[in-house]
């Protein structure tokens, strides 16, 4: 039986974030999600926030703390892609992705760490991607932002590890979401060929790993990168 915690999932209104929030609810936690639009799954508290705006994050935390108590588990999942080849990528396309995916995670984790330090307990989970370490053509901005989360988790581990606060990275590969569903059949088949498991993951397969690494059984794991990619990124 896991201890019931107050959990925040950023970008919890769709895709992997939605599945992560659902899993934490199913395990009996008090769950809040941030979303710019839309709603989190049933049983969650949805608060409006934009991870590129520190003030909106602070307001969201205030709402969550008032309603559910101090945040003990934070899952930094909010992210965007703006894929294009290096030669064509504008500086704005690079910096906007970094500002959401990397600096956004920093803003959320910094605000969450206040309560965690006070409680001498915290679980920080950063959602990266297989392309963070494996690379992806047309994804210089995205893969840079996702690779940087590894350094962030490891530095947080060195800084806060003695306070019973862990920071880990979960790196999903190809997941069945609206984004992969929109790919042409032939392209999906091509991708599946490169995955040893021969299939895409379901969002709930990622969610269960996130919930586990945030739970009581994983208290001595910190600074780790846990791939959920069917073997795609082995050794990366």
Architecture overview:
The protein is of the alpha/beta class and 236 residues long. It has one domain: Rossmann fold (3-Layer(aba) Sandwich). It is 45% helix and 16% strand. The protein contains 8 helices and 7 strands, in the order E-H-E-E-H-E-H-E-H-H-E-H-H-H-E. The chain has a 7-stranded parallel sheet, with helices on both faces. Helix 1 packs across helix 8, helix 2 runs parallel beside helix 3 and helix 3 runs parallel beside helix 5. The model has no long low-confidence stretch (mean pLDDT 96).
Task: Tell me the strand percentage band.
Answer: 15-25%
CATH topology: the name is Rossmann fold
Low-confidence stretches: none
What is the percent of helical residues?
40-55%
Span between termini:
34 Å
**Number of spatially distinct domains:** 1
Order of helices and strands: EHEEHEHEHHEHHHE
Class by alpha and beta content: alpha/beta
Per DSSP E runs of 2 or more residues, the count of β-strands stands at 7
CATH class group: Alpha Beta
Main β-sheet description: 7 strands, parallel
Name the CATH architecture: 3-Layer(aba) Sandwich
- Rough shape? globular
Rg calculated over all Cα atoms: 17 Å
Protein name: SDR family oxidoreductase
Organism: Agromyces kandeliae
Domain Ketoreductase: 5-178
GO molecular function, one term: oxidoreductase activity
Secondary structure topology:
Layout: E1 6-10, H1 15-26, E2 30-35, E3 44-48, H2 54-68, E4 73-76, H3 91-119, E5 122-127, H4 130-134, H5 140-160, E6 165-172, H6 178-181, H7 185-194, H8 203-213, E7 225-228
Keywords: Oxidoreductase
GO molecular function, one term: oxidoreductase activity
Domain Ketoreductase: 5-178
């Amino acid at each position: 039986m896991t201890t019931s915690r107050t959990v925040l999932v950023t970008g919890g209104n769709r895709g992997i974030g939605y599945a992560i929030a659902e899993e934490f609810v199913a395990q009996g936690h008090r769950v809040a999600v941030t979303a710019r639009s839309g709603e989190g799954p049933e049983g969650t508290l949805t608060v409006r926030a934009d991870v590129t705006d520190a003030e909106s994050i602070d307001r969201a935390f205030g709402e969550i703390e008032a309603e559910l108590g101090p945040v003990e588990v934070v899952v930094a999942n909010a992210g965007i892609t703006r894929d294009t080849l290096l030669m064509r990528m504008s500086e704005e396309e690079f910096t906007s992705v970094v500002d959401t995916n990397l600096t956004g995670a920093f803003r959320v984790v910094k605000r969450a760490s206040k309560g965690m330090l006070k409680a001498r307990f915290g679980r920080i989970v950063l959602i990266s991607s297989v392309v963070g370490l494996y690379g992806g053509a047309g994804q210089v901005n995205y893969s840079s932002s996702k690779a940087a989360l590894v350094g962030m988790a490891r530095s947080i581990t060195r800084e806060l590890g003695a306070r019973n606060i862990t920071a880990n990275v979960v790196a999903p590969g190809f997941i069945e979401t609206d984004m992969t569903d929109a790919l042409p059949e032939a392209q999906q088949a091509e991708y599946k060929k490169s995955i040893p498991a021969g299939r895409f993951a379901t969002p709930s397969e990622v969610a269960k790993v996130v919930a586990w690494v945030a739970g009581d059984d994983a208290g001595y794991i910190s600074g780790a990168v846990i791939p959920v990619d069917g073997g795609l990124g082995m050794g990366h």
